[in-house]
Amino acid sequence: xxxxxxxSLADDIHLKSxxxxxxxxxxxxxxxxVKTVGGGTIKIARDKIDxxxxxxxxxxxxxxxxxxxxxxxxxPRYVDILNGFAVRPPPAWKKIATSKxxxxxxxxxxxxxxxxxxxxxxxxxxxxAGLYETFTKTYRTAFKDYVVKFxxxxxxxxxxxxxxxxxxxGEKGDKMGHVHALGGSKGMYYMVFFTGAxxxxxxxxxxxEATFASFDVxxxxxxxxxxxxxxxxxxxxxxxxxxGGQELEAVGQFDICAxxxxxxxxxxxxxxxxxxxxxxxxxxxxEYTTLANLRPDDAQPLYDLGTVLFKNNRYPDAxxxxxxxxxxxxxxxxxxxxxxxxxxQTAEYEKAVEAFKTAIQIDPKATPAWFNLGQIEHLRxxxxxxxxxxxxxxxxxxxxxxxKDELKKMKQEGH
Length: 415
Known about the structure:
Layout: E1 11-15, E2 20-27, E3 32-36, E4 41-44, E5 49-53, E6 78-80, E7 85-87, E8 94-95, E9 104-107, E10 116-122, H1 128-142, E11 147-156, E12 159-169, E13 175-185, E14 188-197, H2 201-214, E15 216-217, H3 225-243, H4 247-260, H5 265-277, H6 281-294, H7 299-311, H8 315-328, H9 333-345, H10 349-362, H11 367-379, H12 383-396, H13 401-412
């Protein structure tokens, strides 16, 4: 059974056919472009859509923006309790739909060098050397134009391990690169590996090796077979109910899971998302707080907590949550934008401007930061700065109606 977390604060695109697409709208034109849960994008003709229920806050930044120059905080140490391992992916990588045979899959968010991280669990009574030779031979013989890069000893957490890397020609004729680390002992082995663009492999190797070093084996939960079966059935049923639009009923199933395994982070993530969507604010805040405690080095739950608090006008608490997220990930653009939005609501305009400008410094293509900055500068009668901000918005998004309206208003006012 698939045990995957639901998307965090995604948008719902309701189709005229009766279906619903879950993702984040990154282009509200025609066609509407949606970033899916799996990390890809799909286009939907406007005449096929009944309505769009926006829940993502703020608007996602321009997907064509260049990689940020500033380093982000470390990616969280994701723990898969049921599969018995923990691994820390490279900074800013995101968990995506799991690949075939993989127990967990992460992907780089760098558009110029897309790599994937997969973890396999291999039950075998063979020894490490024999298993290692099997996999290296498979790569050497099964992949087109395969060239060995290295074969050497490796660190896979505290496990005895071996590593191998190479390049080959992919199915689409592109040059691919990989690096695998295989470790474990008779009975259970773990294989952690990266696959992506061959020309970028060397640059990423230090981060990949750090991921190998972060690997850890986690004791399985002390559950009876009956409780494990009950947990998995409830979790699978909860996911099924979510996809069927039965959000409240799904909460009940995930509550069963949380009672059996109180520290299962994905369960609390699902409960947080669902209760927030259902307007159960107190419960959503509790669930996001629990999730943040379970993933103490992950900025995302803190950001989502801040968003829920912001929507419910709990401004000081929202600021505190966003600032904790930034302590973990200083270049979290959306957190800076939301801090600016909160400061705007509390009339702390100097601090709001500072937050928006910080977001712009990190990502010059962050349209929401430019637009919000323009609005605050207009409010403060700084018309030159406001005009420059709105013009910056239109350079990024020529059809941005809000910026056009603001400039038209300023012109009518004689500015």
